[in-house]
Amino acid sequence: MIEKINSLKEEISTLTASTLEEVEALRIKYLSKKGEVSLLFNDFRNVPAEQKKTIGQTLNELKNLATEKINQLRESLECADTTEADIDLTRTPAIMPLGSRHPLSIVRNDIISIFSRLGFTVAEGPEIEDDWHVFSSLNFAADHPARDMQDTFFIQRNPDVLLRTHTSSVQSRVMEHTQPPIRIICPGRVYRNEAISARAHCFFHQVEALYVDENVSFADLKQTLLYFAQEMFGPETKIRLRPSYFPFTEPSAEMDISCNLCGGKGCSFCKHTGWVEILGCGMVDPNVLDACGIDSKKYSGYALGMGVERITNLKYQVKDLRMFSENDRRFLEEFQSAR
Ligand code: DAH
């Protein structure tokens, strides 16, 4: 039996094959249930006990050799298969899928770029804030409803640790350590305790702008607003200001732009008024300047704040606010060419 094993070893180590079918035939010939190697294992039962150890060892060596040899032949043919025949080195490579910018980032960057052309620089502040920066320093009365649990997310029920409800908090953060002239723009995420629907979300994005210097007037604000509206929505855009109220500005206004879908003629988007609201603004209330350590007798300023989702909706007609945070690639890919 040992001779038979050795001669098979020799035979197997010199095997060659030129196709995968031939390799398979060799596997069947030697290693299948009725293959030569397997038959030897059957005979092994009849080997006298004192020879079992040596013969068992050589038999195992034979089996390993055969398995290895056949795998080797198969692998080298499989590799050869692709390198020689199938690889076309002149073919253009597969296109790598490129991501696209999120629509809110596109619009935020547009807003920043428009204001930076007017000399504004970006300022940032924390999303987890305290009452002073979000409310008190901005002239909110102690019982103002915005402080209520209904609107504001408090952290661990501590009334002094909360998620900012607007980016106006960055105004007071900057003013308390900078003297005018101040010309900043503050983009960021804000949070409000709202039920999530197509028209409301518990987080969204705002951009705040603040300009404080000597002799800043409402005319300066209006000119800035007109420049912004026309840069953002096109040179034909008109603006109008409606009186409004915010605790931190006096006087306060809300700005409408002529509806950019119908050009002001009236359509379902602007509810047939020809105008759509886009931001809040006003002259910084002297109380706010004083609270932040800026002399309100010497300096004046204007501030404005807008929702990035709102502007994005106007530019791209996104009907449902939830689309912005669901990461649906079909939606995101629509902005591939936007920038
Ligand atoms: N903070 C206001 C809000 O969240 C927006 C705003 C209105 C900001 C008027 C301003 C402003 O700076 O002057 O609704």
Explain this structure to me?
It is a single chain. The protein has 339 residues and is α+β, with helices and mostly antiparallel strands. It has 2 domains: 2-86; 103-335, Bira Bifunctional Protein, Domain 2 (BirA Bifunctional Protein, domain 2), CATH 3.30.930. The chain contains 11 helices and 10 strands. The protein has helices at 2-13, 20-31, 36-43, 52-86, 103-116, 131-134, 168-175, 218-233, 286-291, 308-316, 329-332; strands at residues 121-122, 128-129, 154-155, 158-163, 182-191, 203-213, 239-246, 249-258, 275-284, 300-307. The protein has a 7-stranded mixed sheet, sandwiched between helices. The longest helix has 35 residues, at 52-86. The model has no long low-confidence stretch (mean pLDDT 91). Bound molecules: 3,4-dihydroxyphenylalanine (DAH). Residues 166, 168, 208, 246, 249, 280-282, 303-305 line the site of 3,4-dihydroxyphenylalanine.
Write the layout of secondary structure elements.
Blueprint: H1 2-13, H2 20-31, H3 36-43, H4 52-86, H5 103-116, E1 121-122, E2 128-129, H6 131-134, E3 154-155, E4 158-163, H7 168-175, E5 182-191, E6 203-213, H8 218-233, E7 239-246, E8 249-258, E9 275-284, H9 286-291, E10 300-307, H10 308-316, H11 329-332
Helix pairs in contact: 1-4, 2-4, 3-4, 5-10
The chain binds 3,4-dihydroxyphenylalanine (DAH).
Residues 166, 168, 208, 246, 249, 280-282, 303-305 line the site of 3,4-dihydroxyphenylalanine.
